Amino acid sequence: MAVGRTSPTALIVALAVGCTAASADDRSAPEIAVELHRTPQAVEVRGLDRATVRRLEQLDPDDSTWSSWVAVYVERTDTDTASTPPVIGRYAVSGDRVRFEPRFPFAEGVAYRVEVDTADSRGSAVLTHRFALPSAARARTTRVTGVYPSATRLPSNLLRWYVETSAPMEPGNALEHVHLMDEAGREVQGAFLALDQELWDPGRRRLTLLFDPGRVKRGVRTNVESGAPLIAGRRYRLVIDDGWLDGNGAQLASGFEHAFEVAGADRQSPDPNSWDLTLGSPGARGVLAVSFGEPLDHALAARMLTVLDAGGTPVPGSVALAEGDSVWTFTPAQPWVTGDYTLRVGGALEDLAGNNVVRAFDVDRRIDSAGVDRDVAGATRTVPFRVN
Amino acid sequence: MTSLIRPTRLALVVAGMTTLLATRDGATAADLSNNVGRTEPGMRFSAVQLQSAGVMHFSRDGMLFVADPRGAAIYAIDVADTQRDTSTTGIQIKDVDGKIAAALGTTRDQIRIVDMVTHPLSHSLYFSLTRGKGNDAMPTVVRVTKDEKVSVLPLENIRNARAEIPDAPAPDAKTPWGQPKRTFSVTDIALVDDELYIAGLGNEEFASTLRRMPYPFVGKESATTLEMYHTSHDRYETASPIESFVAIDLGGKPSLVAGYGCSPIVTLTRAELTAGKHVRGKTVAELGGGNRPFDMIRYTNAKGKEYILIANSNRTLTRLDPEQLAAAKAMTSSVKQAWEPAGVGYLPVAIVGVLQLDNYNAKNVVMLKRDIESGSLDVVSETMTWL
Q1: For testing the chain A interface, which of B151, B186, B204, B287 should be mutated: the one with the most A CBs within 10 Å?
Q2: Distance CA B92, CA B98 (A)
Q3: Of A197, A201, A218, A341, which to mutate for an interface test with B (greatest number of B Cβ within 10 Å)?
Q4: What is the C-alpha separation between A207 and A30, in angstroms, rounded?
Q5: Cα–Cα distance measured from residue A94 to residue A33, given in angstroms and rounded to the nearest whole number
Q6: Rounded to an integer, what distance in angstroms lies between the CA atom of residue B356 and that of residue B353?
Q7: CA angle, B235 then B239 then B241, to 5°
Q8: Of all residues in chain A, what percent carry a pLDDT higher than 90?
Q9: Which of A118, A135, B213, B291 has its CB 3.0 to 4.6 Å from that of A109, i.e. a possible disulfide?
Q10: CA separation for the pair A305, A292 (Å, rounded)
């Protein structure tokens, strides 16, 4: 009986020699062939006798009784105690062959066992064949390209990090590999919000990591009990270890660290009224620079500001962030025309502490019990300016 | 010389009301509206191409709702589960993740279960999960029967209706640099009086949004998007993502009981949930710090008494009395010591390690539970006689 790993490219044919066949006659015994490197993958049992074929031809491709004739199993490990069901797939009969195509591709590093019941009136027999797809070695090429905010001085009520990587990552266990370390080199436990579904961008190259809101919010139990994860006046490091796996299952090429010091809490909404707008030379082609006076959220600042012309139409141009996300620049596609313009600011634009333009992150109702209902979603602010 | 003059006037424009009600146009909406007028609007045989397998919910008549957060969509799927189980016996499946993984041709470390729900008539269990990891990950939905038969829902051709999650970032929404970055994560969904409630959070702006849209889907969903706030000790009011919720009548009023990631339990009257409104929930209980309410169900025990049951990350299974929630005032107490529960009290049920929770049959609730001694992930039921 042929047992063991297949070579990566071979079509494996296992002869029934030496298997547990109990009957001995002059018929040729069935063979098991595994097609791993074709699409779809398949396991074929060849050389079945006509009576067996006739029986199997009566079954639907998805019939649950197929697996009592031909079944593929994931090999159990030593620690498994429960019985395992056969691998799900579709069956078909063609000539003297039964073909099984698995519902999902056979997985690398998993050992499989094929069992074929060749019993007939002359006795029982189970033909067995084992195969596996070897695990390929993965090159470590993915790295962390940056974390945001990138500033080295951050508010103690910082709400989130963005971690960007050079290639798609494997979601699901980021919190095992992203660590907040204090001055003494101890990890701050439970700093980040655990979510069943991690907050990845569609390309799985940017992870949003929220500080546990319960530890950032004022008056909330976990804040009072455990304290805020970041304490003003102290230094920390955001450390990403190289054990984090990318989308190919390879570890990172290297770890990443971002050191920063912590300032006091920021409980003020960003105020567009206080922003500096400047138009750089050369003249009509000048770049509009909006200085926020503080770093704003890296993702939101990139998309929540729009330049409108006097008629309210968005002015086409290219946008960039500079100086640690504290400056937004806009380069118009066409030269500026003398006249009135408006900078439209989305109400959801936040600073690093989650205070948005229309509402601070947490509002003290004892002080500001009136007027909170004006802070509805979707509110925008506008900053008029004129180009002469 | 070009110069820039900066007026001091600042305008506040409330643009939210109309945009909140808008949904995106698109081929899908058009496809669905082509089906308007059939007996079940929007339902047709087609491939359900999940980009991700998220949280699920069964309607009382067995329609499965599956969230696809990455695809910014909700699917209503006719699972065609014609089995009927009228028994009142419980269910037990040891090592359920190992068995599902084996049926999918892999090992248990290569699947990630997202949600488990019970078909209300067949009592089969449905799991949303990802098979494989990283670039090879495939979202799917698996059915497991009481006798441990595992099958894959034939999503390649199944009767379904698709609706885009209203106001979720479009899958092709791009940054100024041309890359799609925004996503929306769905934490819980439920069908309540012909409306689908969708709780979740985005990967950029921090807001607690609850979306409501009518079901059956009829094409262009007119949805209500709410910003939810809750107060802490009746003082600081903040937005926060809802982790799980349950619809229930409190004091005769249709309400929601919502559990938040930082452990407060908040009640909301459904009549107050209207578009664009600043909705403020009432914090009536805290289960205690350092805990997340994973899952929440309501049930009626053998004596006809209704309760809410909560599965927790760092506490035992927890039973709350809706009558007490209805009668409770907003919490104003201050913290005395770490991990202390406050507000409306609860019964700590002596069951730990519960990751998923659902109603099972007339006599049992069902749990996906990590055995703390063996580490095995098991399906177990618990009779409501003792709950």
Answers
A1: B204
A2: 14
A3: A197
A4: 52
A5: 14
A6: 9
A7: 130
A8: 60
A9: A135
A10: 12
pLDDT of residue B282: 86
CB contact under 8 A, B206 and A284: no
Cα separation, B266 vs B257, in Å, equals: 6
Question: What domains, with CATH codes, occur in chain A?
Answer: 12-132 (2.60.40), 144-263 (2.60.40.1220), 272-387 (2.60.40.1220)
- From chain A residues 212-231, the ones with a CB under 8 A of any chain B CB are 212-215, 217-222, 224-226
Residue with tokens 């370390």: A181
In what side-by-side order are the strands of the sheet with B364-370? B92-93, B377-383, B364-370, B354-359
B328-373 residue pLDDT tens: 988 876 656 667 788 899 999 999 999 999 999 999 999 999 999 9
pTM equals 0.87
Structure tokens at B342: 């406050």
Query: In the prediction, which pLDDT does A4 show?
Result: 38
Strand B56-58 relative to strand B44-46, pairing:
unpaired
Give pLDDT, residue B211.
86
